[in-house]
Write a structure and sequence with these properties.
alpha/beta, Rossmann fold, Pre-protein croslinking domain of SecA, 23 strands, globular
């Protein structure tokens, strides 16, 4: 059976689609040959198919074998468009595939292909543990039939389980767990303690989320400190009773806050000190951080409190950001604000951004439903191009224009009424809200209107799979904080599709957004939940001109008296422009933050690579022992060869790790203070480099000097033990992700700092 005219026509349409950066024609031309090979493969038994899989050597053979293996192993025969997606991944592209188009199966075929082409091992990087485990177990029968091994890693995996999973041909793991394992491997003192192998190929699921939204997020490995002070609780008590407008002022955009002169006076009176005296720097920092926690970070919007701890909310996905915390004492300040015990930050032993970790892989490819919007950034930061893959069945979803209202109250009343009308007909409705607080408020409003609903937000994200699976059931009303990266299909009629025909007659799933997000991609991901695989569906966004997005980024563009109809809907070209403009500005701000963070991280990552190469030599060779024989020959020659080798390696690794931690602390301090030099018309980035580069150049000299000093002072007459050289590594280590940019841009921090200094001067 040849490729149908319908498929050819659809490919021609997508080849002309604006924003498509990769020509799909070469992939399309391979489809007839793949189908012919597939016909021959069907005649083989399983053992022969496995043998054929091990012999496949080109993308066409790989796709043909992968399709037949999927049909036999899990009863799903990949569509032509899924094979096109797999070929794009094999060419190291980012494949844009609509929600429900089978990205999981596409990734499995591509992972198999990368292994066959000699690019293994392959890591399929996901956004969370649930998807890593689910996809690995779901695809395992296919990999087994293809003659490959597969493993998965979650936060609960033991070191031995991790080692076994990474030893497989294909490993499914969240990007954060993979990054943490890399950091831990960088601190081992024995090669056998490593869990990862070579970072060869990464297939990135939800590529725009991981490669762009989370790219600047630092992953941190911390170690315990012997002494830790906790000034934050006292500072939280001090700022708790301060009043906005009198004691502090929040910037119009809500991204920074500063004490007034009266506020500083009140704080100093409570503390009984001069905050700007040199000896009170710690208290000054603590009260500023406590003020940020109190004034800028909002419970059930920026974070939730659950099981006695503060958990950050991922603004892009509306769920708890696992193991993420704010830096620079802000996490402890929020905990103090909520009356909780502050958790120690410890000493940063090593850190790496998601972007820098991904860059360590020799081959990177990915897939997502929304890649074109960030195509330029993917090219700039990762040298990746986007291939837009057409849907298997044309999308017939009806996307209505935004319904814009002048006020929140009017918008919310109209929103509830729209949901009520759809629910009374039995049409399933999925509503996307911007935060936890909004989702719970909407649920209460619906209940008051007699409409039962199920809420999915950061407080119950462990139930998300079950909730999403039933969102398409007859009469279902589901309120969710975003849908990006949820990873579960919504089938019309519910998970069993029992009432599918009735739901189809009603128009399919109706998706409603209760406000625009900062990113068009997140809005598109919400819309994409309707119209899956050619299903009917609809979408509309209800927007208020009082929404934070619009007031922050397009307040000046709003018309003074917008035109409205009798229902309160705004029909004004200028208002519509303001909504679109606000979202574009927000995207530009986030892009600039990403670019700025990336510029600062470039030199740090170059230093990390150089240090990692030195550490690898120390760990796997006798370079440390040779150095000691040259620099401390008398003592070195007096020792047994094995004792010298073990002592030299351990001491040198200890000081390398110790000095790298000190270097990271120094860079953090420099980064925090360097922007004040802009007041002297100096480029902050240049100033950062002026401090970072010389400090690193001295590092290797210091490592060697400290190693020799420790070696000469250690008593090794009775053999080697770390205690003999007073080498004490942290008694405990833990990992977390930093929620970067909590106070806004670097310029916001500068303006805030200047404002505080001016205020303090005015108050004296």
């Amino acid at each position: 059976m040849g490729v149908s005219q319908r498929v050819k026509s659809r490919f021609r349409k997508f080849l002309q689609r604006p924003g498509t950066t990769i020509n799909l024609a070469p992939y399309q031309k391979r489809l007839p040959g793949i189908e012919a090979r597939e016909d021959a493969l069907r005649e083989l038994d399983d053992a022969a198919l496995t043998a054929a899989a091990q012999a496949a050597g080109d993308p066409g053979e790989i796709c043909a074998v992968g399709r037949e293996a999927a049909r036999r192993a899990i009863g799903e025969r990949p569509f032509d468009v899924q094979l096109v997606g797999a070929m794009a991944l094999l060419d190291a592209k980012v494949a844009e595939m609509a929600t429900g188009e089978g990205k999981t199966l596409t990734a499995a075929i591509a992972a198999y292909g990368h292994v066959r082409l000699g690019r293994g091992p392959v890591h399929v990087l996901t956004v969370n543990d649930y998807l890593a485990k689910r996809d690995a177990t779901w695809m395992e029968p296919i990999y087994t039939l293809l003659g490959l091994t597969v493993g998965w890693v979650t936060e609960a995996s033991t070191p031995e389980e991790r080692r076994e999973a990474y030893a497989a041909d294909v490993t499914y793991v969240s990007v954060s767990e993979a990054g943490f394992d890399y950091l831990r491997d960088q601190l081992v003192t024995d090669v056998a303690d490593r869990v990862q192998r070579t970072l060869a190929t990464a297939v990135v699921d939800e590529a725009d989320s991981i490669l762009i939204d989370e790219a600047r997020v630092p992953m941190v490995l911390a170690g315990s400190l012997h002494t830790e002070s906790d000034p934050v609780h006292e500072a939280a008590d001090v700022v708790r009773d301060l009043r906005a407008g009198k004691h502090f002022e929040v910037a119009d955009d809500g991204r920074s806050v500063a004490f007034t002169a009266a506020g500083l006076e009140a704080v100093e009176e409570k503390l009984g000190i001069d905050l700007y005296a040199d000896e009170h720097v710690a208290q000054l920092s603590a009260v500023n951080v406590a003020l940020h926690a109190r004034a800028l970070l909002r419970r059930d919007i920026d974070y939730i409190v659950r099981d006695g701890s503060v958990e950050l909310i991922d603004e892009m996905r509306g769920r708890v950001a696992q193991r993420r915390r704010w830096p620079d004492g802000l996490q402890a300040a929020v905990e103090a604000k909520e009356g909780l015990t502050a958790t120690a930050e410890g000493e940063v032993l090593d850190t790496i951004t998601v972007q820098a970790y991904i860059a360590l892989y020799r081959t990177v490819c990915g897939m997502t439903a929304t890649a074109v919007h960030v195509g330029e950034q993917l090219r700039e930061y990762f040298n990746l191009e986007v291939a837009v893959i057409p849907p298997n069945t044309p999308n017939i979803r009806e996307d209505e224009p935004d319904r814009i209202y002048s006020a929140h109250e009017t918008r919310d009343e109209a929103l509830v009424e729209e949901i009520k009308i759809a629910h009374e007909k039995g049409r399933p409705v999925l509503i996307g809200t911007l935060d936890v607080k909004a989702s719970e408020l909407l649920s209460q409003q619906l209940a008051a209107a007699g409409v039962p609903s199920v809420v999915l937000n950061a407080k119950n994200d462990d139930e998300e799979a079950a909730i999403i699976a039933e969102a398409g059931a007859l009469g279902a009303v589901t309120v969710s904080t975003q849908m990006a990266g949820r990873g579960v299909d919504i089938r019309l009629g519910g998970s069993d599709e029992k009432n599918r025909d009735k739901v189809v007659e009603l128009g399919g799933l109706f998706v409603i957004g209760s406000g625009r997000h900062d990113s068009r991609r997140v809005d598109d991901q919400l819309r994409g939940r309707a119209g899956r695989q050619g299903d009917p569906g609809g979408s509309v966004f209800f927007v208020s001109l009082e929404d934070d997005l619009i007031t922050r980024h397009a307040g000046d563009a709003l018309p003074p008296s917008p035109r409205m109809d009798m229902d309160g809907v705004v029909h004004d070209d200028q208002a519509e422009y303001a909504v679109e403009h606000a979202q574009r500005v927000a995207e530009g701000v986030n892009h600039e933050i990403h670019r700025n963070t990336w510029r600062y991280s470039v030199v740090i990552e170059q230093q990390r690579v150089a240090l990692a190469e030195r550490r690898e030599r120390l760990l796997t060779s006798e370079v440390a022992a040779i150095m000691l024989l040259e620099r401390s020959p008398e003592k070195a020659k007096s020792l047994d060869e094995d004792i010298l080798s073990d002592a030299a390696r351990s001491i040198a690794l200890y000081h390398l790790d110790r000095l790298w931690a000190e270097h990271l602390a120094l860079l953090s301090e420099v980064r925090e203070g360097v922007h004040l030099r802009a007041l002297g018309k100096l480029d902050p980035l240049d100033e950062f480099h002026r401090s970072a580069v010389p400090a690193f150049q001295e590092l290797f000299t210091q490592i060697e000097a400290r190693t020799i000093e420790t070696f000469e002072e250690a008593d090794l007459s009775e053999g080697w033990e770390p205690e003999r050289a007073q080498i004490v590594r942290p008694s405990a280590t833990w990992t977390y992700l930093v929620h970067d940019n909590p106070f806004g841009s670097e310029l916001d921090r500068l303006i805030s700092a200047v404002g505080r200094r001016i205020a303090s001067g005015a108050g004296r």
